[in-house]
Amino acid sequence: MPVTSRSGTVFAAVDLGATSGRVITGRAGPDELVLTEAHRFPNVPVRLPDGLRWDVLALYQGMLDGLRTAARGGPLTSIGIDSWAVDHGLLDADGALLGLPFHYRDSRNGKAVEQVLAECGAKELYAVNGLQHLPFNTVFQLAAHRASAQWGAARTMLLIPDLMVHWLTGTLGAELTNASTTGLLDASAGTWSDALIRRLGLERSWFPALREPGEPAGTLLPHVAEYTGLPAGTPVTTVASHDTASAVASVPATEPGFAYVSCGTWSLAGLELSAPVLTEESRAANFTNERGVDGTIRHLRNIMGLWLLEECRRAWGRRGTAPGLAQLLAEAARARPFAAVIDPDDEMFLAPGDMPSRIDAHLVRSGQVPPDSPGGYVRCVLESLALAHRRTLRQAAGLAGRELTRIHLVGGGSRNALLCQWTADATGLPVTAGPAEATALGNILLQARAHGLVGDLMDMRQLVARTQELRHYTPQGDQRAWDRAAARLAPVRALDARAATPAPSVDTRALDGRRRKEAHD
Fold it and tell me: What is the pTM of this model?
């Protein structure tokens, strides 16, 4: 039984993000929800001759070091692991990893997308999996792997958090919320789609039994317990291992009609529903239906989020002209409103690279003038994200037949006051910002619920609302200015037509060169 005193109940959330990983400890109870960061470690992808890969061995070591640091404060009631979605490792018959997992931003999937859609059309695929078309979805990544030597030796496919659980406990399983991002789950039934797996020539035996958030996943292996200093019987609890699913579980919504934006590297904007929306209109609008906690559906669309800003900062840093974030935001606040707006969903922004030059190319293509200062670029990015939040949430409400009353903006982006205010202004809806640590909170809360310390999903959300710092933004200014800015993007969005027609991956290096030439000309 867990220790249930205020001082003794401690859970560990392993939260693996695209740029860093963290081990966070948390205490949760009826009137308590407190997080402490135990350890942070970098997540640096490695470019090998065959493509961009995740260094999962370094991630695993960082996780072990973090758990060892957390153990110095005393025993842990349990451990939960979440990460980004879609990326995976293949194991052989002995359970050994067959190479480092590919990074979803690697540009190898173009032909695989064409192959999968030739075998199973886009409409048929969506009718089963209800998944937004993204060229890096697991189903396409697996198809891209078919020609590899590893393919013949593969016996099991594990998404990143399931792989980490396997290394901690020796058990095999597939957590449901993350499995729903693969494109191989039946969106209506919440089970692996045996028919789709067979149709695409995949081995059903590769896909482990599904686990629901809250189920036990195993206990630490002896050598893990020895290294970390934790008791050998320390349990690992299945949480909503897709980081967005954990973040949405901690949205502090206490009223109906809410929308959410989980904002960080990506902006995940949508609604929480009781059933998937599998209509042709939803497919054409490129909305996804991913599993949430307690049978809920996350009806949302991925938007290229603050990745745009961070890639701009990296580009300026390489040139030796990188102002600090606070200075950039101050300059953005003073820059001319709506001087330039972009479509964040343009696939040219997906891969790492010279983001300011890509923004220039996008603006030239849409008949706009590129910014002349870093602050102008930041204003362009943040106003464009606010417009994308508006467009996506209005579409989501229309597709689901909902009327929206409030937006909850959670994750790291909730610290960005400009983005929060402009999202309120663009949408005409009040925005509640926070918690910033939504993913870790959801992870901890689901462990606490599994151990009987908090109640149902509503109880979890009310606890977040009572205990966490939240900020509130009301719409200001003339919404017609946002309407005019949105209208400037309509021609380029119509030209791309990506909401209706899946686009394959492209050679990003050639694209960058062509965009820079366009911008220069």
Answer: 0.90
